[in-house]
Amino acid sequence: MHFVEYGAGTPILIIHGFCVDHHLLLGLDPVFAGRGEWRRIYVDLPGMGQSPAGPEIDSADAVADAVSSFVREAIGNERFAVLGNSFGGMIARHLVAEFGDQVLGLALICPVAVADQGARVLPAKTVLRADPALMDSLTPEDASDYQEMAVVQSPENWLLFREAVLPGLRAFDSAATARISSNYALSSEPETRFLDYQGPTLILTGRQDHVVGYQDQADLAGSYPRATVAVLDQAGHNAHLDQPGITAALLGEWLERVERSMDRGAAD
């Protein structure tokens, strides 16, 4: 699997969503770079970005297994934190089930909580503020992609979308992602594999997220007793792009909790 890495110290694995790549979450890097010693590992999931996917990558289980193998090779027995977005959030939950207390903390941004799209509790697709002039200035393909996700259309938000979303959206392997889509659910829900996860957790969602919603994610919190659950207004499925300031603050607070738990563990 292709990845990019920054910094040194405690590993944090950062996992993007479906049909995008590691660029989606690179804008979060200043939050990690500005505090502590964190080795930030941004992966491209199989069939996305620069990671190839052979015929064996035919399900969410296969992706989860590939990421688990990557963790064993790149991180080994070190304790690590994990952040997952959308489909990557479902994979991050799998890592908690797979690695248990080796996972120092879990952050989920607009995660898939219910794999079956027809069973999700979703708000209606909403555009709170349209910008017709901006939309007219874009190519038809760019306008279509941006309009599908933008809750508050603006030149500033478009630039974030262009830098974070479009690189992966233009590069994914359509055959591989079709195979994964046909078996999109994990064979077992991660939370059925452990009683509860005691590490510091953040579950961040968008109030206007019409892709995965926000109510199903709140239901996950019962398995994560140290979870902060936040629903951001004026935020869709790319909540970290729609509300970057609040996202940075919440991630910073989550990192503080992770670091305090690490200090207590070292003292013990």
How would you describe this structure to a colleague?
Helix content is 41%, strand content 15%. It has a 7-stranded mixed β-sheet with strand order 1-3-2-4-5-6-7, sandwiched between helices. The model has no long low-confidence stretch (mean pLDDT 96). The protein is of the alpha/beta class and 268 residues long. Helix 3 packs across helix 4. It starts with a strand and ends with a helix.
Morphology: globular
Placed side by side, the strands forming the largest sheet appear as: 1-3-2-4-5-6-7
Instruction: Describe the largest sheet.
Output: 7 strands, mixed
Low-confidence stretches: none
Please provide a brief summary of the model.
The protein is of the alpha/beta class and 268 residues long. It has 12 helices and 7 strands. The protein is globular.
Q: What attributes characterize this protein structure?
A:
268 residues, 7-stranded mixed beta sheet, alpha/beta
Give the secondary structure arrangement, pairings included:
Blueprint: E1 3-6, E2 10-15, H1 23-26, H2 29-33, E3 38-43, H3 60-74, E4 80-85, H4 87-99, E5 103-109, H5 132-137, H6 140-149, H7 155-164, H8 166-169, H9 174-182, E6 201-206, H10 215-220, E7 227-232, H11 239-242, H12 244-267
Parallel strand pairs: 2-3, 2-4, 4-5, 5-6, 6-7
Antiparallel strand pairs: 1-3
Helix pairs in contact: 3-4
